[in-house]
Amino acid sequence: DTGVSQDPRHKITKRGQNVTFRCDPISEHNRLYWYRQTLGQGPEFLTYFQNEAQLEKSRLLSDRFSAERPKGSFSTLEIQRTEQGDSAMYLCASSSLAGRGDEKLFFGSGTQLSVL
Amino acid sequence: AQSVTQLDSQVPVFEEAPVELRCNYSSSVSVYLFWYVQYPNQGLQLLLKYLSGSTLVKGINGFEAEFNKSQTSFHLRKPSVHISDTAEYFCAVSVIQGAQKLVFGQGTRLTINP
User: Fold this and answer.
1) Residue range A29-82, pLDDT digits in tens
2) Are B53 and B32 in contact (CB under 8 A)?
3) What is the C-alpha to C-alpha distance for residues B9 and A94, in angstroms, rounded to an integer?
4) How far is CA B102 from CA A9, A102, B1, B97, in A?
């Protein structure tokens, strides 16, 4: 169990540029979640996948955001035309759906995005 | 919709003293309750969770929490803290049905002084 890994750890970009983050979940975990955490706040749910299917998207996820999990393994989160308000820590979590209520999320260390 | 309020943004305590981190939640449907800890430069780690049954839940690192349905609270306690407990603590809820889309509180920064 190597844990959930996220790449890069830090990303600095200029307003208007596109950025892409990657998340590698724990092997064989079928659910993958994306959360966003701004300074001084708790994480907020963005979207989740079950295998390769994106089953839900939060209203926080504007049209500039897109997430994929093409083969049900790693996932990417892309932000187009970044804005300063996108500056945040983007967290990925994965889980193995063992049964109702028994789902345990394992979080990565996150990607810190700074938009200048 | 669900919401979580952590009543203290910062809690300073001395080493070996007891601590309580307070959490209140609001939900029109039944929820599961969680406490997560975030150490500097690390991912969130589950401390404990309440699904059903006994209202006193024991977790890792000597932490425990008590679910109080009438007061809609889920306070986290530890009888004697250690320097290594310095971290950010998050209370969270998720609805029982479906995926574990957590709704987090704002966090409480626990600082342990020697």
Assistant:
1) 999 999 999 998 999 999 999 999 999 999 888 899 999 999 889 999 999 999
2) no
3) 28
4) 23, 14, 12, 12
Q: How would you label A39-55 residue by residue, b for 16+ Cβ within 10 Å and e otherwise?
A: eeebbbbbbbbbeeebe
Residue that has been written with the tokens 């938009």 in this structure? A115
Letter for the amino acid at B45? Q
Six token digits for residue B93: 């809820």
The rounded distance, in Å, linking the Cα atoms of B96 and A43 is: 19
Taking residues B53-59, what's their average pLDDT?
A: 93
Q: Are A110 and A81 in contact (CB under 8 A)?
A: no
Tell me which of B44, B89, B97 to substitute to probe the interface with A (most A C-beta atoms closer than 10 Å). Answer: B44
Q: Which residues of A touch B44 (CB under 8 A)?
A: 43, 91, 93, 105, 107
Token pair belonging to A67? 């997430």
How far is residue A16's CA from residue B35's CA, in Å, rounded to a whole number? 37
